[in-house]
Amino acid sequence: MTLLRRFALGTFALGLVLLALGLVAACSGGESSPSNDDFESFDTSATHTPTVSATRTPTARPTATGTPEPPTPTPTPFAGDVAHIQLEAFGVDSLIEKIGVDSNNQLETPKDPHATGWYDIYDRPGWGGNAVFSAHVDYWPDIKGPFNRLDETQPGDRVHIVMADGTRYVYEVFRLVRYDVATIPMGDIIWPEDRPAGEEWITLITCGGTFVQTSSQGWGEYIHRDVVVARLIEAIPA
């Protein structure tokens, strides 16, 4: 099924004051209406077997002379900014825009519809937490946002986070969930209680699902939010 979202303005606000109840996001868009019928969520976390660890030092192997090789060091976490996010499956390479809280005490969305927002008020990639990103699905009049195809994500898809110093973190997707805007549990999404100790995650959020037109010009809003979660599997030094 073709999802035509030509005039969508994929904005949403996440009110910090509503965290205790689960933040409510508002998202407006254009005249076309993607269906919610074909969407399939998944969560493969229960069956995950790590293939690469970014935090565990590999066991030294003996050389031909019997002298063990020194272990490969884990890259020192970079304390600077995030530069790019890359979604392998969709050929997306998006610049990062740092975003936070606006004057109305709401979480901001990227001002540049081509950029992906990183909430630097929360965790930083590479530091063992859960870094949170958001981006537009679409933007008026005909711009496709970085997360335009986020709802097509599959288990095992790779997300690359490139830091400003060139350090690269590779994450593997294990969860895709669609939430109703009125009941999305933003507190749990930002601070997931089911994240295992020592496992680093990133969370990607965008608008999606059912589109409701609210004006004759084609404006309206998406009443769902798509959330993708991925775990760190590799850290590549600059």
Instruction: Please tell me the CATH architecture by its name.
Output: Beta Barrel
Work out the radius of gyration.
Answer: 19 Å
Largest sheet: 8 strands, mixed, barrel
The percentage of residues in β strands lies in 35-45%
Q: What class would the helix/strand composition place it in?
A: mainly beta
- Helix-strand topology string: EEEEEEEEEEEEHEE
Can you tag this structure with a few keywords?
two-stranded antiparallel ribbon, single chain, mainly beta, disordered N terminus, Sortase, Chain: A, 14 strands
How would you sum up this structure, described in words?
- With 238 residues, the protein is mainly β.
- The protein has a single domain (14-43, 77-236), classed as Sortase, Chain: A.
- Helix content is 2%, strand content 36%.
- It has 1 helix and 14 strands; from the N terminus they run ββββββββββββαββ.
- The chain has one helix at residues 186-190; strands at 14-15, 27-29, 42-43, 82-87, 92-99, 106-107, 116-119, 130-134, 138-139, 143-144, 158-163, 168-180, 201-213, 220-236.
- The strands form 3 sheets. An 8-stranded mixed beta barrel has the order 4-5-7-8-13-14-12-11. The chain has a two-stranded antiparallel ribbon with strand order 1-6. It has a two-stranded antiparallel sheet with strand order 9-10.
- The longest helix is centred in the last third of the chain and has 5 residues, at 186-190.
- It is globular, with a radius of gyration of 19 Å.
- The model is unreliable at 1-33 and 49-65 (pLDDT under 50).
